[in-house]
Amino acid sequence: xxxxxxxxxxxxxxxxxxxxxxxxxxxxxxxxxxxxxxxxxxxxxxxxxxxxxxxxxxxxxxxxxxxxxxxxxxxxxxxxxxxxxxxxxxxxxxxxxxxxxxxxxxxxxxxxxxxxxxxxxxxxxxxxxxxxxxxxxxxxxxxxxxxxxxxxxxxxxxxxxxxxxxxxxxxxxxxxxxxxxxxxxxxxxxxxxxxxxxxxxxxxxxxxxxxxxxxxxxxxxxxxxxxxxxxxxxxxxxxxxxxxxxxxxxxxxxxxxxxxxxxxxxxxxxxxxxxxxxxxxxxxxxxxxxxxxxxxxxxxxxxxxxxxxxxxxxxxxxxxxxxx
Length: 324
Fold this sequence. Notes:
Elements: E1 2-6, H1 34-43, E2 60-64, E3 70-78, E4 81-88, E5 95-102, E6 108-112, E7 116-121, E8 128-135, E9 140-146, E10 152-154, H2 157-172, E11 178-181, H3 189-203, E12 207-211, H4 222-229, H5 233-251, E13 252-253, E14 258-265, E15 268-275, E16 284-285, E17 291-294, E18 297-300, H6 303-311, H7 314-318
Parallel strand pairs: 11-12
Antiparallel strand pairs: 1-2, 3-4, 3-10, 4-7, 5-6, 5-8, 8-9, 12-15, 13-16, 14-15, 17-18
Helix pairs in contact: 4-5
């Protein structure tokens, strides 16, 4: 819906007069004045014979009222599937969901619109998606375009971006800010390695420890977590998160800023511990062992590095003391 209203030109109104000079640029169409250009660009009218200061409809205000019959709240495109959340304010039989699968052999699909979360099948050969909510009367009530797999919109965006970042981390391998560890129970020797890595990340650049990942970056199956913790998947992952939090509280001083959460990759999941670069170094074990990160290696800090940590001088890091 569009509403056209006229601007009131009262005693305080100030006229706008654009300069009457040619508007020129190399290899672009020339215009006699700015008004000449605006008239053509916006209104599609070529006033080359009357290129004064007047603009078409310059005293009118156009107000566009959004169509509130339906709204796309979120969308996430993963291989073979589109997760969609649709808000409908009209009966479902008044609108239809239409999706164009650009580049796919099956070019489109028509679905009954449903309110709330829904999951739709998408051809594997689709390259782009154009999503439309169409009213029975023919108007496009809402639309959204997703340009590639893993793209998302709305509330799904942050979660999908995190999954994509994690996929990239796992594919690139261990670095100065990424480390992989298998699922581990209490008193597993890998727990000590996890603690040292957290300390090193906090003392250097920060980083992410992926628990439930093999050395080559492949994700361990959830069945491995069930086997280790001797319970169902949900409880096993919850126990792993709880154990990692306990390790940080009990083994690291001071406790760095860290976020430990689960990330799902299809049927399987990992637990990621994201460590922030510390603002109160040095971070150490309760036995005063201090570690730093060099490349994909965690090692004890040498005397020069210790002095820098104790001085908490950020310029030390900016000069590249810990660069590879």
